[in-house]
C-alpha cells in the first residue's frame, strides 16, 4: 500500500527565505511520496518554483535555494495513484490570474475527476498532466476568477468534488489551507515564533522546531494573515460525516506523528495489546515485519511478556522493484528488502506481527524466508481486520479481485500462507486502539461503508 503525497506550507512576515524550511519539512514527509518533489515561493512580487523527479535529494540535487526567494512557500512530495510518474504531474501546480500568481499542492484523490475533467475540457481548459490534482487546480482557478473570493471559491468547490483533499494554496502572499469535509487526509498547523507552518504530519514541524498547535478541522479553510490564523468552516451537507483514514494509524503515518490529536505510536502499541487480548499464544519470540509493525510487536511483547526480537532486517536502500511474474522472482524481490537473522529464528516458535495483508504475496514470501531460516512454528497476527474492498481516496491498494481477504476465508488464507495460526484484529479493537470514535473514521476498505458516493465512470 502506498499513500499519495505530503504537503507543507510556511507563512512568515519576517524578511527571510523559507524555502529551505519547506525542504526540511518535506524531508520528514518523504515516506508519503518518493516520485517527485517541488517547492513554490512568493517574494512579494514574483512566484518562484522548482520541481524534480525522484526523492527530494534527487529533485533538488545541486539546487541553489537562493533562487527560491520569499517568506511564503508551499511544497509537495508525490506518490501517484492517478496520473503517471512524470515531471508534468509533479506539484505544486502554478498559474496566474489577473496579475495574481497561484500555486497549489494537493494530497488526496478526487473520485469524480474524470467527469469534471471532461466538463473543463469542453469549456476550453487545456491539461498538461493527467492527474486529478490538475482538475482541482482548474476548478479553483475557474471559481476564483468568477468570485475573486477564496472562501466562496472553496464553498463552491466542496459542492462539486467528491473525494479526499488536503490542499495548500499560495495566492501571491496569501497562504491558505483546506481540508475536505470528511477530513480524510491529515493536515496540521504549527507555530514557530511569529511564523506559521502547515503540514500533512507533525513530524515536519519537529524537524524545523515549529510547535504543533492543532489539526485543521474537517471542512475548515485556514487563512494565514499577518500574525493570525483566520478560520472558516464550509457549509457541509448533513449526509457528509467525518471519516479520518484509519490506515494512517495502522500503516501510513510515521509513528512519531500526532494525528487528529492521537499519538500514532501509542495507537500501534495499543493494537499490539489488543492482539494479545485476542490471541494468547505460547511462543518463544515476537517478531515484527519491519518497519510499521515494530510498535505493534512491542505492544504485544509488553502485554504477553514474550521477548521481542528483531528477526527480520529491512534493507532501507532498496528502491522500486519490478513487478515479478513468478513466485520465485517475487521471493527474490522480497529477499532484497528483508533478510532474516538466523540465530534469532532457528528452532523458535515465532509470533510474526504484520500491519496488514493486501494481496498476500509478500506475506507468503516472508513466511518462506522464516521457514528457510529454521522457524519451528509461525503464528501470524495482523494489526488490522481483513482488507476486503478497494480504497478510492488516494491509497494505492489493489482491485477487489486481487485482495486476498475479499476472495478467501481466514482459514483459506492461513492455508495459503502456510502458518500455524492466522489472527486478525477486530474492527472494534482497531477503533479502540486508535482512540477516535467509530463514526469519525473511514473504515471502508474493511467494512465497505464508503463515506462518499462512488461514481461509476
Ligand atoms: S478506504 Fe481504507 S485506506 Fe482508503 S481512506 Fe478509507 S480507511 Fe483509508
Strand content: 25-35%
> Could you give me the name of the CATH homologous superfamily of the largest domain?
Aminohydrolase, N-terminal nucleophile (Ntn) domain
What molecules are bound to this protein?
Answer: iron/sulfur cluster
The CATH class of the largest domain, by name, is: Alpha Beta
Major beta sheet summary: 7 strands, antiparallel
| Strand order across the largest sheet | 3-2-4-1-10-9-11
Architecture overview:
By secondary structure, the protein is an alpha+beta fold. Helices cover 31% and strands 26% of the residues. The protein has helices at residues 19-28, 56-59, 113-122, 132-147, 150-160, 203-208, 247-252, 264-278, 294-304, 327-337, 342-345, 361-372, 404-407, 410-417, 427-434, 444-447, and strands at residues 6-11, 36-42, 47-53, 72-78, 93-97, 100-110, 163-171, 174-179, 188-192, 195-199, 211-215, 220-225, 228-233, 244-245, 258-259, 262-263, 285-288, 312-314, 338-340, 349-354, 377-382, 421-424, 441-442. The protein has a seven-stranded antiparallel β-sheet with strand order 3-2-4-1-10-9-11. Strands 5-6-7-8-12-13 form a six-stranded antiparallel β-sheet, covered by helices on one side. Helix 8 packs across helix 9 (294-304) and helix 10 (327-337) crosses helix 12 (361-372). The longest helix is centred in the N-terminal third of the chain and has 16 residues, at 132-147. The protein starts with 5 loop residues before the first strand and ends in a 10-residue tail after the last helix. The model has no long low-confidence stretch (mean pLDDT 92).
Amino acid at each position: 500500500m502506498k499513500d499519495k503525497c505530503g504537503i507543507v506550507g510556511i507563512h512568515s512576515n519576517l524578511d527571510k527565505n523559507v524555502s529551505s524550511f519547506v525542504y526540511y519539512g518535506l524531508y520528514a514527509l518523504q515516506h508519503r511520496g518518493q516520485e517527485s518533489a517541488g517547492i513554490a515561493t512568493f517574494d512579494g512580487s514574483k512566484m518562484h518554483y522548482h520541481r524534480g523527479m525522484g526523492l527530494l535529494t534527487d529533485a533538488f540535487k545541486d539546487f541553489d535555494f537562493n533562487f527560491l526567494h520569499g517568506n511564503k512557500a508551499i511544497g509537495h512530495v508525490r506518490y501517484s495513484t492517478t496520473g503517471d510518474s512524470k515531471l508534468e504531474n509533479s506539484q505544486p501546480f502554478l498559474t496566474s490570474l489577473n496579475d495574481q500568481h497561484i500555486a497549489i499542492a494537493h494530497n488526496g484523490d478526487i473520485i469524480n475527476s474524470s467527469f469534471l475533467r471532461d466538463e473543463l475540457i469542453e469549456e476550453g481548459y487545456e491539461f498538461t498532466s493527467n492527474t486529478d490534482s490538475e482538475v482541482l487546480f482548474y476548478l479553483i482557478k475557474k471559481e476564483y476568477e468568477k468570485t475573486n473570493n477564496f472562501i466562496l471559491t472553496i464553498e463552491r468547490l466542496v459542492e462539486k468534488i467528491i473525494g479526499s483533499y488536503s490542499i495548500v494554496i499560495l495566492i501571491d502572499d496569501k497562504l491558505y489551507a483546506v481540508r475536505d469535509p470528511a477530513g480524510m487526509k491529515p493536515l496540521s498547523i504549527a507555530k514557530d515564533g511569529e511564523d506559521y507552518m502547515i503540514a500533512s504530519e507533525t513530524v515536519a514541524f519537529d524537524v524545523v522546531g515549529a510547535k504543533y498547535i492543532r489539526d485543521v478541522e474537517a471542512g475548515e479553510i485556514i487563512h494565514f494573515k499577518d500574525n493570525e490564523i483566520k478560520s472558516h468552516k464550509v457549509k457541509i451537507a448533513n449526509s457528509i460525516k467525518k471519516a479520518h483514514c484509519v490506515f494512517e494509524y495502522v500503516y501510513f503515518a510515521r509513528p512519531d506523528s500526532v494525528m487528529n490529536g492521537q499519538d500514532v505510536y501509542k495507537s500501534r502499541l495499543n493494537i499490539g495489546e489488543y492482539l494479545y487480548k485476542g490471541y494468547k499464544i505460547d511462543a518463544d519470540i515476537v517478531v515484527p515485519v519491519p518497519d510499521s509493525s515494530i510498535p505493534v510487536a512491542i505492544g504485544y511483547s509488553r502485554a504477553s511478556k514474550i521477548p521481542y526480537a528483531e528477526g527480520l532486517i529491512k534493507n532501507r536502500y532498496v528502491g522500486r522493484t519490478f513487478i515479478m511474474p513468478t513466485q520465485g522472482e517475487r521471493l527474490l524481490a522480497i529477499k532484497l528488502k528483508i533478510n532474516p537473522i538466523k540465530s534469532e529464528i532457528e528452532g523458535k516458535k515465532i509470533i510474526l506481527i504484520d500491519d496488514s495483508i493486501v494481496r498476500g504475496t509478500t506475506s507468503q514470501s516472508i513466511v518462506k524466508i522464516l521457514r528457510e531460516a529454521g522457524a519451528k512454528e509461525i503464528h501470524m497476527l495482523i494489526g488490522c481486520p481483513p482488507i476486503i474492498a478497494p480504497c478510492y481516496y488516494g491509497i494505492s491498494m489493489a482491485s477487489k479481485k486481487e485482495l486476498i481477504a475479499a476472495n478467501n476465508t481466514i482459514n483459506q488464507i492461513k492455508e495459503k500462507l502456510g502458518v500455524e495460526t492466522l489472527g486478525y484484529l477486530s474492527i472494534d479493537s482497531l477503533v479502540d486502539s486508535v482512540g477516535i470514535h467509530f463514526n469519525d473514521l473511514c473504515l471502508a476498505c474493511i467494512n465497505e461503508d464508503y463515506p462518499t458516493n462512488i461514481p461509476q465512470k
